[in-house]
Amino acid sequence: MSKRFKSFGEFYPYYLSEHSDRTCRRLHFVGTSMVIGLLAYAVFSQTWFVLFYAPLIAYGLAWIGHFFFEKNRPATFSYPVYSLMGDWVMYKDMLIGRVKF
Question: Model's pTM, two decimal places?
Answer without folding.
Answer: 0.92
